[in-house]
């Protein structure tokens, strides 16, 4: 019979429980707490994601460079127009109750107003100051026409007409006073030369006085500046009329050039003249 007496009893070792489940439980609880806190605004969501703080705006933005002053380029002074300083009074003959010479198709007062307005356009484009005795179908007395020119201190006076002779004559002529100055004579000659260059049916010349040979035309006698009277063809002549209509622009340009040439001949550069002023021309309209 066997006996265990005197032998040490052998104790079966007990296995310790692992701490892993406990740690896992703690982690789960902690994550749940954090999620709940973030949901209700108690904890920030980025609790475990710490990002570096952004640099202050003053540190990341460079100071703006000083704005450079704009470069101002001076524009060159415009060249003076060749006619600056010259005043011309253009007088379209007749008007209103006075039709001038006429046919069934044409009235002198209408034809000369068209040409006079075209002359004004060409002259003003060259810098010439233009004073008109009339700009529409208005009757103006002869002495009133002269007064307009004199009050404006015009340098030149150009009266525009058309001719009549019962259908037996044709061509262009220019009139000046018997005692015309050299400058007035030069202006008349220069205008006639320009008209010839453009094209007219007949050059009837530069004449003195008036058609009735009873002294000067009133507008040539009572104006204080070099003055001329243009007879731009005969209104009964079909070819004169055709040339008048066709060459109106060219005639106006040639008359303008004659004014410039005459002024240059007797006064030099018009821009240097102190005799004329736009204010004086404007006062004539009042």
Structure description:
The chain has 286 residues and is an alpha/beta fold. It has helices at 20-39, 57-60, 108-125, 142-151, 182-198, 218-221, 238-246, 248-267, 278-283, and strands at 87-92, 129-132, 156-163, 172-176, 203-208, 227-234. A 6-stranded mixed beta sheet has the order 2-1-3-6-4-5, with helices on both faces. It starts with 19 loop residues before the first helix and ends with a helix. 33% of the residues are buried.
Which fold does the CATH topology of the domain at 87-275 refer to? Aminopeptidase
Strand order of the largest sheet: 2-1-3-6-4-5
Give me the CATH architecture of the domain at 87-275, please: 3-Layer(aba) Sandwich
H and E order: HHEHEHEEHEHEHHH
What is the CATH level 1 assignment of the domain at 87-275? Alpha Beta
Radius of gyration: 51 Å
Mean pLDDT, as a whole number?
Answer: 83
Care to count the β-strands?
6
Q: Between the first and last Cα atoms, what is the distance in angstroms?
A: 164 Å
Shape annotation: elongated
List the helices and strands and how they pair.
Layout: H1 20-39, H2 57-60, E1 87-92, H3 108-125, E2 129-132, H4 142-151, E3 156-163, E4 172-176, H5 182-198, E5 203-208, H6 218-221, E6 227-234, H7 238-246, H8 248-267, H9 278-283
Parallel strand pairs: 1-2, 1-3, 3-6, 4-5
Antiparallel strand pairs: 4-6
Helix pairs in contact: 3-8, 5-8
